[in-house]
Amino acid sequence: MTNLNDRKAAIVGCGFVGAASAFALMESGLFSEMVLIDSNKDKAEGEALDISHGLPFAKPMKIYAGEYKDLADAEIIVVTAGANQKPGETRLDLVKKNISIFRSVIPQITEYNKNAILLIVANPVDILTYAAVKISGLPENRVFGSGTVLDTARLKYLLGQHLDVDSRSVHTFIIGEHGDSEFPAWSCTNVSGVPLSRFCDMRGHHNHEKAMEELAESVKNSAYKIIEKKGATYYGIAMSVRRICEAIIRDEKSILPVSGMQNGEYGISGVALSTPVIVGKNGIECHVPLQLSNDEMAKLQESADTLQNVTADLF
After folding, report:
1. Does 121 share its domain with 10?
2. Which residues have C-beta within 8 Å of that of residue 57, sequence separation ≥ 6?
């Protein structure tokens, strides 16, 4: 068995998201080696060269285009390979195209490395995380998706704007599917320990329900809006990839809403979706149980049902 190098990352798929993620990871200083893999080798080589030329302004690092055999000692493998979401297309519309790609890509990864953490970023991320678990046969705690980490960041940003407060002081989660059935866990939301409704009153916002509905819709539609305006989203998700990798490499035990397999949590099993978990060097260490309202529990079950209806036809 090849020993893993905890200073080595791999990116499989060098489209917008893969390239932006590679750039974000280079900037992070977390790794000393990074291999880029793409079905279009020239694309991978071009991205590796472009990023490498900025290394005199960053920390020493080896960045290169490679083959699947170069994944053998990578600690984290970020999988962004997949077709892009087109304007007017939902994440679930992508599913059949990208499952087919995963049936090709995942076995090539596990042929050379069965011990890395697989971070799935391609969409629809929950379905593809489920697919990666089933196809790879790897432990479920070591195969998970970027989930609603970015959606949660979007909500924190928008709440920070709404309340005129630092978004890092906002504590909340978007949970469920990374997609149309996602929702905020409002009952657990606070600003530095102050319940959200009380903080809103303090800042002169009193029409809570309407404002929260609008914010939740803004988060849900963020990707569609960005895709409509510029064709793709990649900076926000790249920073999310960096954040998740930091939690793993530094064994931070950070609580993040990544997409992982559910085994009875919230009464849900046999599906991958996002709920808060502790993330460290072994991937998902344990689930963090939120005290959800009855309405939120029902929404989470609906989200799980939406995803299970898709996976039932595929596996």
Report:
1. yes
2. none
